[in-house]
Description:
Layout: E1 4-9, E2 15-20, E3 24-26, E4 39-42, E5 49-52, E6 56-60, E7 67-74, E8 82-87, E9 90-95, E10 107-114, E11 127-131, E12 134-139, E13 144-150, E14 156-163, H1 168-180
Antiparallel strand pairs: 1-2, 3-6, 4-5, 6-7, 7-10, 8-9, 10-14, 11-12, 12-13, 13-14
Amino acid sequence: xxxxxxxxxxxxxxxxxxxxxxxxxxxxxxxxxxxxxxxxxxxxxxxxxxxxxxxxxxxxxxxxxxxxxxxxxxxxxxxxxxxxxxxxxxxxxxxxxxxxxxxxxxxxxxxxxxxxxxxxxxxxxxxxxxxxxxxxxxxxxxxxxxxxxxxxxxxxxxxxxxxxxxxxxxxxxxxxxxxxxxxxxxx
Length: 187
């Protein structure tokens, strides 16, 4: 693995530098509980959930001091979210999303797990709800939908999706079904 410097946007809106590593991995498909018709169950991470079968799932190990990626989902074919460029005698790596551009009616989403000093669910904006039986906060919108889920030990799981219209109601419905299917079998 190669450690590289990158800038990340914190939930507070501030930028921070962090070390990140990107290693592509493919999702393993296994049978698991009941899922909505037209959905596939992901058992590739500690978070179990169903996503639309027409979407792509890919794993790239991307992490910082505060969080790490679990899995990326998109309606378009994904690519490595980190890009390396040569700068002088070194290499600069910038990490972002697994798609470069969202076309109309496309979705790019990812699951993260993390912990930040002083983090608690009450500090996150959004409507209180339960996801996978755990306390959570949900933010819905025209372009970004986010859910922050409290981890039992400490820290959080986060699901963040970017959606491009005009099929917003259909895509938002798919994301709500995805979040409704979430399970945490490993506590």
